[in-house]
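Do me a favour: review this protein, sequence plus C-alpha cells, and tell me how the chain folds. Record follows.
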Amino acid sequence: MPVLDVFGRAPEVFTEAKANSADLWWFAFVVAVLPPLLLVTTEVIVTLLAGNRFARVLHIAIVALLGMLFSVRAIRLGADIEGIALFALAVLTAGLLAVVYTRLVLIRQWLRYGSFAPLLFAGIFLFSSPAHSIAQGAGKKASTAIPVVATAENRPPIVLLVLDELPIRSLLDSDGKIDAERFPGFASLSEDSTWFRNATSVASHTVNAVPAIFTGRYPSVKERSPIAREHPNSIFRLFGNAYRFNVSELTTQLCAVPRCDIENPENAPDATAETPKPVANAPKPRVTKSNPSPLSTLLETAADTYRQMVALHNIETTPDVDHDALVAVPATTAPTTTTIAGPVDRGSITPTTVDRGFDFLPVVQPTRFSEWLDRIDGDIENPELNVLHIQMPHGPFHVDSKGTNYRVPDDAQQLVGFAASRWSPDEGAVISVKQRHLLQVRYVDTLITVMKEHLVAQGIWDEAVVIVTADHGASFDPGGRFRELDDQSQVDVLGIPLFVHAPEFEQGVTDDRPVQSVDIAPTLAALADIDQPWPVDGVNLADLGDLIRTKYRAEALRPGEYYETKTVDVSRHLQQLLARLPSPGTDGGDDLTILRNGPSGQLIGKRVEDLKVALDSPAGTVEVEFPPDKNFSPTETGTVAAFIIGDISTGGANQTIVVVVDGRIGATSLTFDDGTGHASRFAALIPPTWMTAKSHEVSFYLLADDGALLALS
C-alpha cells in the first residue's frame, strides 16, 4: 500500500489537516480495506447474477488492471520511461500477469494469502508508523492545557515569526553582514535588534525543528509526532494564564490550550485539568469559511497522491492563485512614501525601507501572514502572544520578489538536478534553484517590512519582544545534500537567522556567541517574567555570559524514513559560514542582478540582433520538458511560464545555454548531468515580469567560446 506508506511517514500531513484518531482509523479503512472489499463484493454480486464464468473473467480482469497500475508505478521508479512507451510496457506486464495467474496454481495461492495484506498494512500504519501516536487517540492526556501561574503583571507583547527553510547564508553579503541592498527588510530588522549570527537549528526537518523552538528541548531519541500530546511542555502551556493568544501553526499542533482555537478534540484540555482564568479582551473565536472535514481533506490528498503515482507522465502542480483571496501589499504611490492598500491599515513605509512595489501576496502562506498580522493589536495592558510559522521561503519556489507567480512542476521536478538525496556535482544543477530561492527570499523580505511597520503603527514596537527566526535551512552546493546532514551541508542546513528585538537587547548589535533554536523558549519565558517549572535544553539569550557550545544532539535524517539523532559539532560553525560568503560583486542588487549571477549573465537583457549569431546549420536540438505543453502564455489566473527545463542533444555538461524571449536574452544556464540519463539537461528562469504578455516567442542557443550564439532547433 504505497499511499499508506507515504502518509505514515509524514505525520505532519495529519496535524496540518487537524485530524484526530478517528480520522486516521477511517483513513486507513478507506485507503487499505475498502477498495478490496468493494472488489470482492462486486465479484460476489456478478457470481450471483451472471454465474461463475462471468465472475472468473471479471476476476482475471481485476488482477490484470491491478497489475497494470502496479507496473506503472514500478517502471516509473526504476526507469526514465513515460507516455505511450510506459503504457505499452504496463499493458504487456499486466497481460503476462493474467496469463501466469490463470496457469500457475502457486501464483493464485500466493495472491490468495496476499489478500490479508491490506489488513496488515493498515495495522502497520495505525500501530508502528510515525503517525501512530495520532491514531492512538487520547491515551496521553493533553497536559498542555494545564496553566502555569504567572509571577508578574506588566508583560510585553510577544511576536514570534518562524520562517521555513531559510539558511542564514542566503541573507549575507560578501562582508558577512545582512545584504541591505538585496534584503532591506531584514537589514532594517537587524538595525533594531540583536542579530545572533552564529545561531543554529537542532533539526533539518520541520516536524522536529518547530517543536524544539516552542519547547526549548532537543529532538527526542525516539521520534515524536509534532502535536501537544507528544510535546506537552511548550510556551503555549507556559503562557496559558498570562497572555491572549494569536497563534497560527502549520505542520504542528503544539498549541492546545482553549484560546489556540484548535478544533481537534483530542488536543483539547483534560476534563480534570485546571483551566486558564479568563483574560480581559481575549480574542473571540475565529470565524472561518466552511471547510471540508479532516477526513475528506486527507482522502482527497490521498487520491491525488495515488493519481501522481500511477500517471503516465509527471503531473504538473502549479500553485493556483485566487485573486479574490489575495491581500494587497506595499505599492509605491509617491516618491516619498509607500502606502499599503487592503483590509488592514498598516500605515506607510518609507522608500529607504522598501523601494519596490508589489501587486498581491499570492495564495495561502502570505494570506495566513496577513490574517495573523491583522490580529496583532496595540493593547499593552492585556498583552498578546503572537506566533506564526509560515512555510516561506520554503519550496516550491514559484514567486519573484514582486509576487509574480510562475509555473513549476511537481515537488520532485521543481528541484531539477536533485536525485538520490544529492545535487548533481555539476554546477549547472544548482544555479537556477539558488536563483529561484533567493527571489523567494526577497519576497519574504517584504513581509518582514510589513510586519515591522504594522507593529510601529500599533504603537507597540518599542515595548514588544519580537523574534524572527527559521526552523532550519537548506543547502544548494553542487554534489551536496539538500536537507540531510553531513559535513558539507551542515553549515547551511542548521545555520538559521535569529533576530531578537526587545528592550533588554541592544539594537544594531551582531552577537557571534553559539546559540541555538532551543534558546528561544527560555528567552521568552525570562522576558515575560514567568518561571519555567520544567527542564529545558536552551538558555536565556539575554544572559549568555561566556557561553561555549561545541556539540549537541540533533535530528539527523528524514523523519519516518531513517529517523535518528546524532551528535552535531558546531564549534566551527561560524568559521565555516564566513568561509562560504558570496564573492564581491555577486551580492546586492535586485532580481535581475540575481539572475545575472549565472554563466555569462551579463548577456541578459541584450538584443540578439546586437550580438554575433552563427548562420551555419543548427548546433543541435533542444527538447523542452517544462512547460510540458511548450506554451509560454500566462494562465487565466495570471501565472506566467518563466521556468524552463530542457535537454539538448549534444555536448554533455557545462555548456552555456542562452534563452531568448521576444528577441532579447532572458536567461542563461549551464547544462548538467542529472544522474538519471540526461547528460545535457538545463534549467533556467526568465524574469517572470517579462512573461506577462499573451504570447511569447522563445528560442534557444548555445554560447560558443568566441561569444557567438549557435542556434538550437
Observations:
- The chain has three domains: 2-135, 143-274+329-541+551-578, 598-712.
- The mean pLDDT is 78.
- The two ends are 44 Å apart (CA to CA).
- The chain is about 30% helix and 15% strand.
